[in-house]
Amino acid sequence: MDLWGSRQAGDAVGEPAHALDRDALAGFELDFSVDGVRHRGPLRTNWDVRFETVEPVREFSWHKFARGFAGWYYSATVRDHVGYESWLERDRLILLDRDPEVTAIASQPFWLHWHDGVRMRRHAPDYFVRLADGRARVVDVRAEDDMDEATRESFAATEHACRAVGWDFAVVGRLDPVFMANVRWLHRYRRARCGRPAEVADRLLEVFREPKGLWEGAGLVGDRLEVLPVLFHLLWSGALVTDLVGGLMAADSLVWTEGSE
């Protein structure tokens, strides 16, 4: 399952200054907030801010007749709440939280300002993500059939700015509904405490070295009331594997230990 989609750009954050695209940088400014203090300045002098630690540049609001659905998601990765403004963003946030390459996530990290030749424009990307290898990735979430021309222009400008500073950029949309339903179930067991006791986790990894049904394997380890939360946590983390796309998880779903096939 492709987490990011096809639109990506750039190399690792931390490249030498001469590698930055000076012409592209000249047209963009960043507006962000750190410890309650608002900052605004050129992209060329602010691109190396640790945006995974900044505060959202706008509030997540709840209105009776609002088009979206805002909320806060507790991320096991960052051990804190991360905001979202739609169910689609929430689903993407769950996947970011599950991705072992993601080490930090910030929502609505900054306003990107630029002039489009006619007027000043601005756009706040949905997420700023730090990866394990140090790279930065900016993520915008929007269904393809929910994009107008202004949105496409904003995403194109954002991609241009990201390229200039060596950030990855991705526009991502709707996910396979069966896959996402399975991952939503597993995300209930994302917290580390669900993976305990350790001896149950170890036994599950041993039992499922040979693929077998979920219910059968859990019963071989012990009391299913104790074992199943640990099993689901291991499926969330990827230590155990099952087919999340072919159908909804069930008692007879085949499960196996990662790397054992």
TrEMBL record:
InterPro entries: TnsA-like (IPR048000), TnsA_N (IPR014833). Residues 99-172 form the TnsA endonuclease N-terminal domain. Pfam families: Tn7_TnsA-like_N. NCBIfam families: TnsA_like_Actin. This is TnsA endonuclease N-terminal domain-containing protein. It comes from Kitasatospora saccharophila.
